[in-house]
Design a protein that fits this description.
The chain has 17 helices and five strands. By secondary structure, it is mainly alpha-helical. The N and C termini lie far apart (52 Å).
């Protein structure tokens, strides 16, 4: 399930026109993500997209909340306003940022938070009553590029605007600034709503790139972990290249060993990043285990509730890990993961097999590497 936190930047009707299956929530605040994750009445999120968020008189969403969701295998993205701000701060930890506002915060590390701040009405649709500084900044930048305004004059206007509190940046206040009156009297009518443009761009991106996954409450035999899904067994895929070596020629015992090692690595990763299935997910997995074991002869003793629950917990952890990596890699940066995969694959190529043997001999012969 995709959850989107949005308020004054983009209305629900517009969001639903692009992502009809998304669940729309009010502007995000502190503890909202933890509440969503623990809720038994809501479907577990596979992706959370943040557009708007509360601050100033309300505690804003905390960084550790977002990191906790990412650690649970849930993809988190942001744009436009609070989402762009948090994404710029957490993009190195796996949060996805989209749009011009996000890029601005990423490239200007000392940019003020109030660039995206506005005053708005307290109830839906949270109508804005002020203009965000970032919209004015980008509008002035574009006017300079179009040679409508000089860079010096644009800087003078921005300097005067920065002296206004975000709650005072109304159309009337902007029009009455001395620099605006003198150099750009048409400014308030020329301001482009870049926050809204970024929000729409982010939704179109999600619409094109989101992977449809089944809820854990609807488990069936068609949902299973495919070999290589989590990329922990890159060494298997590269050492036994299908184009060069037939998998049929490899001893079944060796494949079993590699698959077992890969499974153990995946479970260790689940524990390392603290993937903790909810009771509802575990119950769903237990029902799934019972169905499978009744149809097939598996080495699970259904009369032992402890063992059944243990396997159900392991299954739930693996499925959460699987979904996170299928959802454009919520656990790791997607580009970084592919880059490392390609690099490591080349190191295990068949052409390097003799060099690898020499390296193994050196590593385990008791000798040290020369400096």
């Amino acid at each position: 399930m995709l959850y989107i936190y949005s308020g004054p930047t983009l209305d629900e009707v517009t969001i639903k026109s692009i992502l009809p299956k998304a669940r729309i929530l009010p502007p995000i605040k502190a503890a909202d993500l933890l509440t969503l994750l623990k809720s038994s009445s809501n479907e577990r999120p596979t992706h959370v997209h943040i557009i708007d968020g509360l601050f100033y008189s309300t505690l804003s969403v905390r960084h550790k909340e977002i990191l906790h969701l990412i650690g649970q295998g849930i993809t988190v993205s942001g744009s436009s306003s609070m989402g762009a701000l948090r994404a710029s701060e957490l993009h190195e930890y796996g949060m996805l940022g989209i749009g011009r506002v996000y890029k601005y915060y990423t490239n200007v590390p000392y940019a003020a938070d109030d660039e995206v701040a506005i005053s708005h009405l307290p109830d839906p649709p949270y109508t804005s009553v002020t203009i965000p500084m970032i919209n004015i900044r980008f509008t002035l930048e574009d006017l300079v590029i179009q040679s409508v305004l000089s860079l010096e004059k644009a800087d003078m206007i921005l300097s005067e605007l920065s002296l206004l509190h975000f709650s005072d940046r109304t159309n009337i206040a902007i029009d009455n600034l001395p620099s605006v009156v003198k150099y750009c009297p048409f400014l308030s009518k020329s301001i482009v709503d870049w926050k809204r443009k970024d929000a729409i761009e982010s939704l179109l991106y999600l619409s094109d790139n989101l992977t449809s996954v089944e809820s854990l409450s609807k488990l069936n035999s068609s949902l299973e972990l495919s070999p290589g899904t989590n990329l922990l067994n890159y060494f298997v895929d590269t050492c036994f290249e299908p184009n060069s070596v037939s998998l049929d020629s490899i001893k079944s015992q060796e494949l079993t060993l590699f698959n077992s090692f890969n499974l153990q690595s995946a479970l260790l990763l689940c524990d390392q990043i603290h993937i903790c299935p909810t009771n509802e997910q575990i119950e769903s997995c237990m029902n799934y285990v019972k169905i499978c074991t009744s149809d097939n002869h598996h080495n699970i003793f259904l009369n032992d509730k402890v063992i059944t629950r243990r396997y159900s917990i392991l299954l739930a952890k693996l499925l959460i890990l699987h979904v996170s990596l299928d959802n454009h890699s919520g656990l790791f940066g997607h580009e970084k993961m592919i880059e490392e995969y390609l690099a490591l694959s080349s190191l295990f190529a068949i052409s390097n097999r003799s060099k690898l043997k020499d390296l193994m001999a050196l590593l385990f012969s008791g000798n040290s590497f020369p400096y």
